[in-house]
Amino acid sequence: MPVPPAPPNARSHLRVPDAERLQSRLPTTGQERAITANRQTSWAFADAFVCEDEALLWARERARETGLSSVSPGTGAALRMLAASVDAKAVAEIGTGTGVSGIHLLHGMRPDGVLTTVDPEPERQQFAREAFRAAGFAGNRARFIPGRALEVLPRLADGGYDLVFCDGDRAEYPDYLAESLRLLRPGGLVCFEGVFAEGRTVDSAAQPAEVLALRDLLRTVRESGELVASLLPLGDGLLCAVRR
After folding, report:
1. What CA–CA distances, in Å, run from 206 to 35, 202, 215?
2. Do residues 164 and 186 touch, judged by C-beta distance below 8 A?
């Protein structure tokens, strides 16, 4: 389902603060520095609020060994809660990795729910299979599909999913959004991991194509009348939107 065009008076681009304005907002007194430190401490506490079990720690270690990034504990906890909030029975995941995000999603889903997870690397999916099994999930709780997301997603059923989680190629995120809107039922939820791009999304310096794609995604989601969105400061940025 295509994303509806923005209304005529919508902002046409993301406003990126200039360096001087950002500099003027930096802490200049001891009290302000303390406030900033307290905020960072609070974020760290929130990120570690949900304890991760041995299966998740094992999956994280496999990710480190293979050079993959995985969702932060705070992001994983949010995904778990969001899956539970929509009583998810069918979830599609773009980017299996070694199973970290998948375990969190499965924990939040209904006991009879099925996670469909897509990744171009079968070796990663094998790690995820082992991690899911170690976490206590039956084999029929996950469907693994190897392949590129934009080749696999068109084969999935229209309106058949309660939640779509995207953690694949950042340059393809705008295309993932279009596919997600087709896949989601009304009231379904789409989430995008890594939209901060380690601060580059709001950096006014010249940026690579994947960062430009993230800006396009943010602008499209923000201006869509079909979505109710929120950008959560978890991990490297978690963009969430409910399809009306």
Report:
1. 31, 11, 13
2. no
